Amino acid sequence: MSSYPLRAEALVTAMTARADAAPAAAVAFQGAPGAYSHQAVRELFPEAAPLPCVSFEDAIEAVQAGRCDRAVIPIENSLHGRVADIHFLLPESGLFIIAEHFVRIRHCLMGVGRQDMLRQVISHPQALGQVRGRIRKLGIEPVQYFDTAAAAAHVAGTGDASVGAVASKLAAELYGLTVFAEGIEDADHNTTRFVVLAREAAPLPDAGVLAMTSMNFEVRNVPAALFKSLGGFATNGINITKLESYIRDGSFAAAEFYAEIVGSTDDPAVVLAMEELRFHTKWVKVIGTYPCVRERTA
Ligand SMILES: O=C(O)C(=O)C[C@]1(C(=O)O)C=C[C@@H](O)C=C1
Q: PANTHER family given for it (predicted)?
């Protein structure tokens, strides 16, 4: 898939200026106004000022530097898998996950003319991955852009009827585009999981509230190291819901992992399992315990 050569420079400049002047109560997200991350911010923090940022790094940096208190970041999608950048950035960020949130993503095909005039469609690579089948059937060339809403803004700005965008209905409204088709994602379950990042860890969820704990760890690169590290979760009846390995520092040894478990770090069974994990690993870093949202258990 090719990448679109143009960036909405004016939009990027405006977003950067806005980030520099953000009030602390603002909530940072990656993308232009009308991005799905913006929608997630509105659902989670209806009172807060949404702070659009050009990149994930910028959104994270706004929280690290204290320019705002929260960032809402997509980490995985039910159709297109993980948002790789974020899994790589999280361990480095020093921030904590304090909540998770699921958004059902409904994509629209939009433009300035008619649907049969479209030759190309531009959007965020994740969004294009979620509509791949439908776009192929329509015979339109998918082209990557840095954000769904910025793609909509770009199409509106050029007025080129041969280039459409895949973005939210909100983006179509904000940038004055015509929606040719709604709900064009390749599966009905198309849902993106967002996490809320903050400088401080959240207080542990009350007893009786189902909790999730996210962590990174590095195992020794020897046979059975991972098996032994995770043994405590099996013997203590703790459900591991996610386990992903990473290449770090150019090494293919892939001895670093990101894991999510069901349970809070003050749950006695989790305490025992974590002790065993610490014993068998080089280091463990817990990056948040937060309430488990129902979607995962459904
Ligand atoms: O481009 C956007 O609108 C975003 O908010 C980014 C993003 C993503 O990176 O996953 C968020 C939700 C959808 O899965 C598609 C794109």
A: PREPHENATE DEHYDRATASE P PROTEIN (PTHR21022), PREPHENATE DEHYDRATASE-RELATED (PTHR21022:SF19)
